C-alpha cells in the first residue's frame, strides 16, 4: 500500500494542472466520478481505484507530453482529482488500521464482569 502512496506523492505535474486539481478536490464525488472513469458497475475499493487511476493518469501524461490530439486536459484533471482523493482515503484507512493494530488492549476494572 505504501508503494502506491509513494507513487502518487512522487507525481510531478505542471502548476496550472495541479491548481485545477486542487479546485476540483473540493467538489469530488466518489460515486459519480469513479463510475464515469471506470465505466460503471460496482465502485472499486480505494486501493484498486488508486491502481487503475495511476495507469489512466500515466496514459494521459504520456499523451500530454507527446502533444497528441486525443489529449484532454479536462479528463486529465478529472483523473488526477480522483487519484488524489482516493489516495487520501487509502492513506487515512492505512493510518486507522495501524493505530488499531498498535493500540493497547482495553483495561478491565478489577472485579467487574
Number of helices: 5
Distance between the termini: 40 Å
How many individual β-strands? 0
Q: Which radius of gyration do the C-alpha atoms yield?
A: 19 Å
Shape: globular
Topology as H/E string?
A: HHHHH
Domain count: the total is 1
Helix content: 55-70%
Beta content = under 5%
Structural class: mainly alpha
User: In terms of per-residue confidence, which ranges show pLDDT below 50 for 5 or more consecutive residues?
Assistant: none
What profile does the largest beta sheet have?
none
- The average pLDDT score comes to 83
Task: Provide a concise account of the structure shown.
This is DUF6477 family protein. It contains five helices and no strands.
Topology:
Elements: H1 2-9, H2 15-25, H3 30-38, H4 46-65, H5 73-102
Helix pairs in contact: 1-5, 2-5, 3-5, 4-5
Protein name: DUF6477 family protein
Organism: Psychromarinibacter sediminicola
Region (Disordered): 94-113
Description:
19% of the residues are buried. The protein has one domain. Helix 1 (2-9) runs antiparallel to helix 5, helix 2 (15-25) packs across helix 5 and helix 3 packs across helix 5. With 113 residues, it is mainly α. The chain is globular and about 65 Å long. The longest helix has 30 residues, at 73-102. The protein has helices at residues 2-9, 15-25, 30-38, 46-65, 73-102.
What key phrases describe this protein's structure?
113 residues, mainly alpha, 5 helices, 0% strand, globular
